[in-house]
Amino acid sequence: MNKVQATEKPRQRAPSKRALATRARVFDAAEKVFADRGFDGATIRMIATEAGEPVGTIHHHGGGKDVLFQQTVARRAATLSQARLEALARLEAPATMAAVLEAFIRPFFDLALQDPRWRNYARLVAFVSVDGRWRDLSAECFDPTAEVFLAEIKRLAPHATPQQTAEGFVFTVAAMLALLTSQGRISDLAGSSQAQAAQIDHLVAFCAAGFVA
Amino acid sequence: MNKVQATEKPRQRAPSKRALATRARVFDAAEKVFADRGFDGATIRMIATEAGEPVGTIHHHGGGKDVLFQQTVARRAATLSQARLEALARLEAPATMAAVLEAFIRPFFDLALQDPRWRNYARLVAFVSVDGRWRDLSAECFDPTAEVFLAEIKRLAPHATPQQTAEGFVFTVAAMLALLTSQGRISDLAGSSQAQAAQIDHLVAFCAAGFVA
DNA sequence: GTCTATATGTAGATAGAC
DNA sequence: GTCTATCTACATATAGAC
């Protein structure tokens, strides 16, 4: 058993499993701390503590605080986009407005329901959406997919002006993020709790009705 | 013996006009900087520069960074609540869902359209709504009025469950803040600009239709 | 790749002159 | 009430040992 890679030094060595696991822990920790406290409220030290790694390791994998932040946001964006576009492609030919909106909304909830890291990611995205300094980042990560859905929505509501469809889409995204990040706020207001499954249906119905109007 | 009473503030003297103006400049500046950068991203020095005041003055009027932040959020909340409740009271007897939602939504836009400081305030509120650390502050400032409107909405949609009305209200608030803080984001997506007046009508219609569904 | 120690900057806060 | 000067603490980042 010769260890080939031990002596070879190509342009970039494949990272070891150990290194990849560390890297994932660093980004998961960054995701959680950034989601809790925002970019400026988070510190490299908090992230290091959360990850169970020394401070230097965060810089090594993250490459500075704002690169770390941007990569943390970008990391899951491709997965999310793909899930959304696949859901859209799965719709049979005469799609309804509700079905298109659900193809956009549900994948995020499915991921969030089964993985708490995706819930952290949702809160992180909410922070990004509110802070004007990350507009370019947000556009890079999410606009391409948004354009695809926007085109589909326009096709289903040809009578609406471009402004109206754009507005409706912004309202839909805002409502989706609010529900994703509410974490019981709605139950507080309502006085009791209910399965999230129904809430997603309500969100889709709410937005679909809004678009029709 | 009389030492304690002597050193205690007898009662607060009425502040001079000059002092009140300075105080207002401090809070306006804090509002803008907090709206731009969030709580942690803002610094006392940025606020001082924005206000054209020395650093010590910010502490004097604000009393520490987080007290300053909370007072900045609370400062306009009463005005907003009052405007909303008055708009609600002005509705004639058989109110529609759209009219009730408009009574909630339009006052904020009216203030924001005529005063850029209210636009800053809207962005500040968006930051607060996304950061879990300010949940108590947010509840204190906005929940009482929200309860009034929620009761009215329930009256107009007796068939809906408490969960559904609470959800719809959260969606409405999220969409409202998104539109208030969009600052041309919607025009970007739509490819052209349009008067905000129509956008508010669209928002009301969107949400009213959602509630009916 | 991983971890420690440290350099450098700037934050929030305050004491005291005016 | 207003402003200056300064204290203390902790941030990011990096150099270099392992």
Can you identify the CATH superfamily of the largest domain in chain A?
Tetracycline Repressor, domain 2
- By DSSP, the count of extended strands of chain A is 0
Query: For the record, what CATH class of the largest domain in chain A applies?
Result: Mainly Alpha
- The oligomeric state is homodimer
Largest interface: A-B, 58 and 57 residues
Question: Could you name the ranges of chain A where pLDDT drops below 50 across 5 or more consecutive residues?
Answer: 1-10
Q: Which range does the strand content of chain A fall in?
A: under 5%
Figure out the total of helices of chain A: 12
CATH topology of the largest domain in chain A: the name is Tetracycline Repressor, domain 2
**Residues in helices of chain A, as a percent range:** over 70%
Can you describe this structure?
The structure is a homodimer of 213-residue chains. By secondary structure, the first copy, chain A, is mainly α. Chain A has two domains: 49 residues, Homeodomain-like (Arc Repressor Mutant, subunit A, Orthogonal Bundle), CATH 1.10.10.60; 139 residues, Tetracycline Repressor, domain 2. The first copy, chain A, contains twelve helices and no strands. In chain A, helix 3 crosses helix 4. Chain A is elongated and about 55 Å long. Chains A and B meet through helix 2, helix 8, helix 9, helix 10 and helix 11 of A and helix 2, helix 8, helix 10, helix 11 and helix 12 of B.
